[in-house]
Amino acid sequence: MFNWLDYLAKLLVTQVFGLEMESKLGSSIHFFVYDTIKIVILLSIMIFVISYIRSYFPPEKTKRILAKFKGIKGNIMASLLGIVTPFCSCSSVPIFIGFVEAGVPLGLTFSFLITSPIVNEAAFIILLGLFGWKLAVVYVITGVIVGVLGGLIIGKMKMEKHVEEYVYKMDVAQIDPDELTINERISFSLQNVKDIVKRIWLFLIIGIGIGAAIHGWVPEDFLAQYAGENNPFAVILAVACGIPLYSNAMGTIPIAQALIGKGVGTGTALAFMMAVTALSAPELILLRKVIKPKLIVWFVIVTGIGILLTGYLFNFIGHLLM
């Protein structure tokens, strides 16, 4: 599908910059140019399609639908909803507040909050393009399972009292939008593409830049030795390194791609990606404004254990998915 882009990127490296493709700099530039253009194209197409579908389901209607589901069905629906909503954890928090205010059970809101930054339609399409459909599908399934189980556990703990009181007292207007025409839905979708790409492009460029540097300059033996599938502590280290950072799935996928290409275990790279997106320090700081420390601690513990298990699972079966 993107053979034309690979050809143009190679021409840029060899003809414009006068570099050998086998050189470290040439390899890094090719990685950066190819992945940047490819990801932006895939991202824009997927955002447009999902935004068009989403124009039929405004937030108020979505909250009313979700509130009807009980038990594990509700957690599954909330987790699936997280797939087609915001692209980073910090933008998920306002919707999380809206769910609490609307009376959606706390366990369901956490299923949404956990899944939303880890798995979304853009991350899926990029994983599909970079790693193939097997890894992309299994990643989505495990991300949803982490969200469902995390929400179930937190819901069973009855921790509603650890949500700040003012959140329950907020009054969010419930306004049903006017019926949109096809042209208005297209305009809405195009605007979403513009807004989202504008919001995440810096994270995307930084992530691809780091991935390009790893791809071209970091020796394979070094990463394979310390973060390969045979190192039992690699996944734990990856999660610990990911928590202080902040990005979204689109910014971390190129890094994961480069790490895997250098011999890092598939699960280790994906665990790092999930930790950055779901347990970032900025998200925890923002969450502190709406939930109390004890609930934050349990959120980190439950989500962290889920990510660790996912990392070890992918390290075990990763070779079957690539």
TrEMBL record:
Transmembrane segments: 31-53, 74-102, 122-154, 200-218, 230-247, 259-280, 295-317
Compartments where found: Cell membrane
Chief localisation class: membrane
CC annotations in GO: plasma membrane
InterPro entries tied to this protein: DUF318, UPF0718_permease
Record keyword Oxidoreductase present: no
Membrane topology: Multi-pass membrane protein
Pfam families: ArsP_1
Domain of life: Bacteria
UniProt keyword list: Cell membrane, Membrane, Transmembrane, Transmembrane helix
The keyword Transmembrane belongs to this UniProt entry's keyword annotation: yes
Record family assignment: Belongs to the UPF0718 family.
Name of the protein in its database record: Permease
